[in-house]
């Protein structure tokens, strides 16, 4: 299950990717993803659980979300990836994602999956030797993006990009909780077995990726926080270290950031992957533990 979690992390747990996109979905009614509010007498913070990858024209804007956007002075996302000029992401990926003396990339997947690996590498169009120099997690991210692109889609339809465009058009500021390097650093420090699980997941057949993505999308669209939490708990049951690195530690950092921000007046929207706003270790749970009142408004 670990490789499924790591693929979910790209979509709903908040990992930057300039290349990834989502499988096509059939026409769907407007989603009602979960939205919360935490406030004090002079500050309001909307917490919006997002999905980073969406099909083009997928309907998720609702009156409650539009009202929160209109009231907010600024937007804060996990990290800002400039789709048109992703130099910061590329610089971080280059610095963290390449090393000398690594095992050949083929030796980092089981023999039964090496043909799938070679097919995925061939699709990338990149010189084959480059992958032998990539850290395992970086190779996985590269191939995962290629696999999604092979479905004929672009990666500019996710919730964060739409929100950034909306706030920017209104002349409102957009900030981030983590830099590109900080976010990729969580993967760079993963144990090698977890990185190899991600690599295996990144070379799955497109049909498998479509099924995994559909499961994520449907839970998010229903605003089914319990289902999202159960999925992440199941996938992470065998890896406490991974849970600590990618969810617990970051959620604690973000809840502390929110508490500091509540000391300043104003209204903002924070949009982070839905996986961070679900379960007993969620950002809201940490805030409630510290005495803050959280109200779900959608």
Explain what this protein looks like in three dimensions.
It contains 13 helices and six strands. The chain is an alpha/beta fold and 298 residues long. The chain has one domain. Strand 1 (35-40) and strand 2 form a beta hairpin. Helix 1 (2-12) crosses helix 9 (192-202), helix 1 (2-12) crosses helix 11 (225-236) and helix 4 packs across helix 6 (136-149). Residues 18-27 have low confidence and may be disordered.
**Which sheet architecture does the biggest sheet show?**
6 strands, mixed
How many strands appear in the DSSP assignment? 6
Count of helical stretches: 13
Judged by helices, strands and strand pairing, the structural class is: alpha/beta
Widest sheet: strand ordering: 4-3-5-2-1-6
Shape field:
globular
Mean pLDDT: 85
Unreliable stretches (pLDDT < 50, length at least 5) are 18-27
Rg (CA only): 19 Å
- DSSP strand content: 5-15%
Distance between the termini: 30 Å
Q: Percent range for helical residues? A: 40-55%
């Amino acid at each position: 299950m670990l490789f499924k979690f790591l693929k979910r992390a790209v979509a709903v747990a908040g990992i930057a990717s300039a290349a990834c996109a989502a499988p096509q979905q059939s026409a769907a009614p407007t989603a009602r993803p979960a939205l919360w509010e935490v406030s004090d007498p002079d500050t309001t913070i909307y917490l919006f659980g997002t999905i980073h990858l969406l099909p083009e024209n997928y309907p998720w804007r609702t009156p409650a979300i539009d009202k929160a956007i209109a009231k907010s002075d600024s937007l804060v996302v996990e990290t800002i990836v400039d789709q048109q000029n992703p130099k910061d992401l590329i610089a971080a990926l280059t610095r963290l994602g390449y090393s000398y003396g690594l095992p050949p990339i083929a030796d980092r997947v089981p023999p039964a999956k090496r043909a799938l690996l070679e097919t995925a590498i061939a699709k990338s169009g990149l010189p084959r030797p480059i992958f032998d120099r990539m850290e395992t997690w970086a190779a996985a991210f590269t191939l995962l993006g290629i696999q999604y692109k092979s479905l004929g889609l672009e990666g500019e339809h996710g919730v964060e990009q739409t929100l950034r465009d909306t706030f920017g058009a209104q002349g409102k500021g957009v900030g981030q909780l983590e830099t590109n390097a900080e976010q990729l650093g969580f993967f760079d420090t993963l144990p090698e077995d977890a990185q190899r699980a991600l690599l295996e997941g990144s070379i799955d057949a497109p049909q498998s990726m479509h099924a995994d993505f559909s499961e994520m999308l449907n839970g998010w669209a229903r605003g089914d926080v319990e289902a999202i939490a159960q999925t992440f708990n199941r996938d992470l049951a065998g890896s406490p270290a991974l849970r600590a690195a990618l969810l617990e530690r970051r959620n604690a950092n973000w809840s502390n950031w929110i508490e500091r921000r509540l000391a300043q007046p104003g209204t903002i929207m924070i949009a982070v992957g839905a996986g961070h706003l679900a379960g007993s270790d969620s950002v809201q749970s940490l805030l409630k533990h510290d005495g803050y009142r959280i109200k779900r408004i959608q």
